[in-house]
Amino acid sequence: MSRKAGRPPIQRELRDLIxxxxxxxxxxxxxxxxxxxxxxxxxxxxxxxxxxLLRTRKPSSQTWRTFLANHVPDIAACDFFTVPTVTFRVLxxxxxxxxxxxxxxxxxxxxxxxxxxxxxxxxxxxxxEEAPRFLLRDRDGIYGDYFKTRVKGMGIEEVLIAPRAxxxxxxxxxxxxxxxxxxxxxxxxxxxxHLRRILEAYFEYYHEARAHLSLERNSPVPREVExxxxxxxxxxxxxxxxxxxxxxxx
Length: 250
Known about the structure:
Blueprint: H1 12-24, H2 30-39, H3 46-51, H4 62-70, E1 75-84, E2 90-98, E3 103-110, H5 115-125, E4 134-137, H6 145-153, E5 157-160, H7 170-182, H8 192-208, E6 232-238, E7 243-249
Parallel strand pairs: 1-4, 4-5
Antiparallel strand pairs: 1-2, 2-3, 6-7
Helix pairs in contact: 5-6
């Protein structure tokens, strides 16, 4: 009776374990998994381990997402977005966002952004040694050498996203989308001072009233759960009546 040439098949338990390790650790290759197997008392060849690795495509953003998740308390992000006025004048809004509680720690408006102005906004955002470890931003030309020098002098490490990859700055992009959908798309901006007042009102609502799923269904400034014993529910208009905050009052 003839036998098939080649290595004998490995046990199903070991095959399943190799696939599990591959699925749970997408950055591991066959050598790394083999080391774990040896430490668990399994014996297999590296080529055998490679044979049973999962062949699904690794998400290109896995490492980036891991970085964002692991350093949430240490990351701030900044970004520009434009707002047209009723006279078709283009205003630039600069925002600085802390990742941990999605707080907008600073914003400003200008019609002529330049590197020195942008650098001053970072300085204003983080006084008294409150600077984050990392500053996440895109590769816009506005961030010139002066901006880089001032940020470095504050002890902040700049983390640049890939070209044409706004999804790598997700919290800022989501915030800008919320500002447009929930506020700016519903009003006509008259001038710079008017836009500043609108954004101040929106950020007050955003910080103190607007709940976020990612913040355990609470707002950046946590709201206290109000039991029914505190009275009836009342509504408090915010952002010129575009939104309301609900609270209990005796």
